[in-house]
Amino acid sequence: MRTSRVSRETAKMVQALSPPRRRTRSSLAASSLRDFSYSENQAAPELSDDSSLSSVKTEDIEDLLERPAKRRRRNVDTPSTTISTVSTSRLVKQEVTIKAETQITTPRSASSKQRRQPAKRIKREDGSIEMQPPSNWETMYNIVKKMRAENPTAPVDTMGCAELHWRSSPPKDQRFQTLVALMLSSQTKDTVTAVAMQRLHTELAQGGGSTNETKPLIKKEEDDDDKDGIKFNHEKKDSTLTVQNMLAVSPERLNELIRTVGFHNNKTKYIKQVANILRDQYNSDIPSTPVELMALPGVGPKMAYLCMSAAWGKHEGIGVDVHVHRITNLWGWHTTKTPEETRIALQSWLPRDKWHEINKLLVGLGQTVCLPVGRRCGECELAGTGLCKSEVKGLAVKMKREVREEVEVKEEGKVKEKAKVKEEAKVSYRDDLFRPETAILAKSVTPS
């Protein structure tokens, strides 16, 4: 409908006298549409019934209007801040924050991105799959290898399953002894496994308990700083751990000999079954393939591949135990849930010449530094390098240790200083007591 000049002026006067209304998004949109449709000097054209605004190609209304600033309660005396000022201050604040973050993270941003890249599966153009190793894996491997070589004090270094065979025994018996040691080592510490193997080497052929005539085949190293430094004494006599003696011993007696290891009841049953299979199918020797080894009762992939390396010298797979599985996941090399998944992931990219040594390398690291509970990151050579993804306050631990040592030195110095002062006080007291004038005075006052 048409509006006259008088009605428009009347509307303006009413609007001026009425209190100002809060400007909402809808009112702003309506005002913009009014200004867009007609001006004060031009009457609005009549719209026919078939006309529609939707037929006109325009931008969205929210794109045309500037989004209002977030409302806040202000005091009466507080000057209002325009939208442009708020947006400008936000931009300045964001720019300052970005600059500060860049200054803080620039030294380690590149290494952080590199060290957190796990092994990746890449598909080539020809359809083949290539495994890309994790970033900086070789640097980490060499650092740990050097660290372990400089301090070979882990139990696996002297009491690992590859070290528990009897050197004077025939090769066939040595292979069987290695297999038995691996079966006993499951869920058992190396020190406990070594003691159980010592009893099997010395007492398996005896009908009763151990006699005093049998000399122990494990001796303590008196000069070794390691309390668990146990080594076999191979000069005494031949080992009794053979397939024939294992077949002849009763299950009760075998269970008594290995009672210190974990799950000894199940292991007694499995070892007796394995001895029967080796006698019937392999001429009292152990199988020479991983598949045949894994077919034996109680033997899994870890034992099979470790046995292949230690007994046959064939490195056909990686023996992954809980230490290897845990540490490689802590390093961010992969994200696996089971040791078997870890083995498959490692074998897909790790060079074959390292398949044999990685188990002993990481097991020793897990026994001495990278412990399952209470990791000693401050004592690890990877601390502070940015290579270990799961480093727990490595530098902080190292600094705390240095500070603690410094405090101990200072306290020791204070104690020594106090002791020195006391000693000097005693000496000065004695000197005063035995001066000539003091002695004369004491003699004069002494009753005759």
TrEMBL record:
Function (record text): Bifunctional DNA N-glycosylase with associated apurinic/apyrimidinic (AP) lyase function that catalyzes the first step in base excision repair (BER), the primary repair pathway for the repair of oxidative DNA damage. The DNA N-glycosylase activity releases the damaged DNA base from DNA by cleaving the N-glycosidic bond, leaving an AP site. The AP lyase activity cleaves the phosphodiester bond 3' to the AP site by a beta-elimination. Primarily recognizes and repairs oxidative base damage of pyrimidines.
Region (Disordered) residue spans: 1-134, 206-229
GO MF annotations, alphabetized: class I DNA-(apurinic or apyrimidinic site) endonuclease activity; DNA binding; oxidized pyrimidine nucleobase lesion DNA N-glycosylase activity
Annotated EC: 3.2.2.-, 4.2.99.18
Superkingdom: Eukaryota
Hydrolase recorded as keyword: yes
Polar residues composition bias: residue spans: 100-112
SMART domains: ENDO3c
Catalytic activity: 2'-deoxyribonucleotide-(2'-deoxyribose 5'-phosphate)-2'-deoxyribonucleotide-DNA = a 3'-end 2'-deoxyribonucleotide-(2,3-dehydro-2,3-deoxyribose 5'-phosphate)-DNA + a 5'-end 5'-phospho-2'-deoxyribonucleoside-DNA + H(+)
GO cellular component terms listed in the entry, alphabetical order: mitochondrion; nucleus
BP term (GO), one: nucleotide-excision repair
Compositionally biased tracts (Basic and acidic residues): 1-11
Main location: nucleus
Sequence similarity: Belongs to the Nth/MutY family.
Domain HhH-GPD: 184-368
Basic residues: compositionally biased ranges: 113-122
Subcellular location: Nucleus; Mitochondrion
Keyword set, alphabetical order: DNA damage, DNA repair, Glycosidase, Hydrolase, Lyase, Mitochondrion, Nucleus
TM regions (residue ranges): none
Biased composition (Low complexity): 78-89
Protein name per UniProt: Endonuclease III homolog
Organism classification: Eukaryota, Fungi, Dikarya, Ascomycota, Pezizomycotina
PROSITE patterns tied to this protein: ENDONUCLEASE_III_2
